[in-house]
């Protein structure tokens, strides 16, 4: 049912998840409606771009074990091969074993997916997260 430009919906959530949500909302000062709107927009952005062709922008966030043999050279080579979509990189030494690499990307969604998949396959990569924003 729509009133005043909004639609009211009902959802089912396990009680423990709802409590966790309410506790977090209290800390950050949001109401449930705002939190759900933000979550839905993020969900749509996360998945919509994978279904579309065209240009997007975002960041690859990569955690890897820098002691893994050849990992740094392999990641650098991959980045050079995809230089047309990489706009910037930042390298952070987290501790004696772990490095964080943040790679800003802009280009076709297909090219960005290929870059992410290629990097994730490298031995020593512990985690890769791709954050994409659409216009």
Describe the fold and architecture.
The mean pLDDT is 90. The strands form 2 sheets. A 4-stranded antiparallel β-sheet has the order 4-5-3-6. The two termini are 29 Å apart. With 135 residues, the chain is of the alpha+beta class. It is built from 4 helices and 6 strands. The longest helix has 20 residues, at 32-51. It has 2 domains: 13-51; 55-133, Alpha-Beta Plaits. The chain is globular, with a radius of gyration of 19 Å.
List the helices and strands and how they pair.
Elements: E1 2-3, E2 6-7, H1 15-28, H2 32-51, E3 55-65, H3 71-81, E4 86-93, E5 98-108, H4 109-120, E6 125-133
Antiparallel strand pairs: 1-2, 3-5, 3-6, 4-5
| Helix run count | 4
| Mean pLDDT figure | 90
- In which range does the helix fraction lie? 40-55%
Query: What is the string of helix and strand elements?
Result: EEHHEHEEHE
Through-space gap between termini: 29 Å
Provide the CATH topology of the largest domain.
Alpha-Beta Plaits
Number of strands: 6
Strand order of the largest sheet: 4-5-3-6
**What is the CATH superfamily of the largest domain?**
ACT-like. Chain A, domain 2
């Amino acid at each position: 049912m729509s009133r005043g430009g909004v639609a009211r919906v009902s959802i089912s959530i396990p009680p423990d998840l709802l409590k966790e949500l309410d506790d977090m909302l209290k800390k950050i000062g949001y109401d449930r409606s705002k939190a759900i709107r933000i979550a839905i927009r993020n969900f749509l952005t996360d998945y919509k771009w994978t279904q579309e062709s065209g240009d997007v922008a975002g960041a690859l966030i990569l955690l890897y074990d820098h002691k893994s043999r050849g990992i740094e050279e392999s990641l650098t080579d991959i980045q050079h091969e995809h230089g047309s979509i990489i706009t910037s990189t930042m390298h952070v030494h987290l501790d004696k074993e772990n490095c964080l690499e943040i790679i800003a990307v802009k280009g076709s969604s297909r090219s960005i997916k290929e870059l992410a998949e290629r990097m994730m396959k490298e031995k020593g990569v512990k985690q890769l997260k791709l954050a994409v924003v659409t216009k």
